[in-house]
Structure formats: structure tokens, C-alpha cells
Write a structure and sequence with these properties.
By secondary structure, the protein is of the alpha/beta class. The chain has nine helices and 13 strands. Helix content is 34%, strand content 18%. Helix 8 links the parallel strand 12 and strand 13. One of its GO terms (molecular function) is hexosyltransferase activity.
Amino acid sequence: MIGRLYSLILSLGSLTLITFCLWSVWSKIANVDESHVGHVEYRILTIENVTSKPFELHSLADTDLHSLIDLPSFNFNINQKVCNNNTKLIMALVHTAPGHYAKRQAIRDTWAKMIPTLFFMGLPDSNITQSDVVLENKIYSDIVQGDFIDCYRNLTYKHVMVLKWTLYYCPCARYLLKTDDDTLVNAPYLLEILNHRLSPLGARNLLMCQLMFSSMVKRSYRSKWRVSYSEYPNRWYPIYCRGWAIMYSPDVIYKLYTEAQVSPYFWIDDVHITGTIADKQNITQTDLGTLAVDESDVVGDKNISRKFLFCLLTKADESMRTFWKTLLQPNDTVVSSSTNLGLDENIGNK
């Protein structure tokens, strides 16, 4: 009798625990839409509504250029001033590591031929690698390097460095694309969307990416993304962007940058910049939907030219050129994915 009672209590306890876990997950999912209440949706610019600059650079402190979050003496070890205050439709800003030469070369040989592109990195832990980076930059003049060590724990420094560089050295770009060096950009289709579906004049409040919903903080010591309770006490991350392909409008760059400069450092940059910081600034992320794909979604497809904007590759240095060649091949069937972004005739009302 006592054994049956003990078994019943154990079963009820287990059922209560399972019910609580399911309720916790469901409440997080159910509140996803509520997190965007009060946020401002993006809007495209037309000749009629271009009324002001996206930001005023003089509003930044005189000491701002040489500070990076909690680094008081930041400098660009290698810099590029390619914009020269000239208007550019789009600039691509690629996160890379010093040793990823093959990936950078694959990008140079493919989609960077159509979109102005720079590669952003920190310092390597090898003088030989640094010498290689300096030589590479002498040849291509497309590397921007900060004076912090390039490692996982410094990813947020790299991300904010990209935002800083944009504000100081390319403020006239109408769209900014932040990618990783294993991302294939469907440049022809992207330029078509910017010019004919969005607006060649730019946008405001645009933060467009592949969204992550209801993402639980990893606490396992086996995970390279483990976060301690002291680093991040909450159980769930806010809605944030997967960082391998993010489209910004320049006003959003300014808002994220100025907030990040005065916020405590958190090393997972995607969560911190496009989640926590974006939420503080009431910026709504716009989901790319099926316009952002993994390589497995399109491998072997010979008719992919308008099925995606961004593709995450597993071995970019090997497959980038092959996919690019396929993208440039003419095809008879046009599959438009523009409806995934609401890119219809009424987009100007966004």
C-alpha cells in the first residue's frame, strides 16, 4: 500500500514538472508578438518622404572614435575610406577571421564583384598571420582591422566596430549588409529588390534578418555558447537575428551603436546587438523568411536565381564559386519570394 502511494506521489510530481515545463515554453512562444508592441515598423523612402538625414555624426562625443564599448583606447589597425561621402546604394560588411583568406577570396571572386564589400576582423595571435593580412590588404585594399584579439569572446567588439566604421566612414550608404564569410549573397536578386521592390532611396527603421524566437540560454559546460548566470541571468533570449545575414538602414546603425557604446558588454553579438539593444531602442526586426536559406535547402537545384537572397554555406571556400555560377545561369522559371517580405505594390505604406 505504501509502495503504491509512493508511486502515485512520484507520478503526480513528474506530471506537475512536465506541465510546468510545457507551460513555460508555451508562455514564451505566446508572448513573442507582445514583445513588439509599441515598436515602429520599417518604412521605405520615396522622393516625397526623404525629409532628414538618418543621423547627425556631430552628436557623438569627441572621444567616441577611439572608444569601443569598454575599450577606452580603440584604434583601427587597418582602415579603408572607400566611401568618401559618396552615396552608395549598399555596402557589404563581412565578419571574417584573420586566417580565413580562402573564404575572403571566394567572396571576392563571386558576389563582391557586384556589391562593394569590406572584410572586418580583429588581431590574430600570430605575427605570421598578421603579416599575411597586411600583404593581402596591400593587394586588395578591402580589410578593416580593429586592435583587439579576434576570438569568440570578442565578437561583440567586432560587430560594434562594424557599426562604428559605418557611421564615421560610410554615412551615405542607403543600406548596410552585415554578413559572415560563409554567406553567399544572391547579388543580382538583392539589387533588384533594393531598386524595384524596396527603394533606391533607402529606408528607415530597417533591421531585416532571419529571426530566432524563443531561444533558451545554453548553460551546459559542453557548449561553446555556454553563458553563465552572472553573464545573462534570464532563461530566454529576446527575439534576435541570426548574424550571418542582416540588413540595416543607417538610422538603425546609429541607434544600435550609441546604445551599445553605453551598455554592459555581452559577448554573443547576435543576441546583444540585434536582440537586447534593438529592444531597448524599440526597433522591430523584420524576418527574411524563406529568403534566407541553408545550403541544404538549395543544393542540387539548378533553378535558384530568385529563391533566396542569402545562403549559409557549410564549406564556403569550396562551394561559393559553384553556387555563384549556378546563380548567374539564365533559367526559364522565375520563382519570386518577394511576398515573404510583404514586398507588394503597397510596400510604401510600411
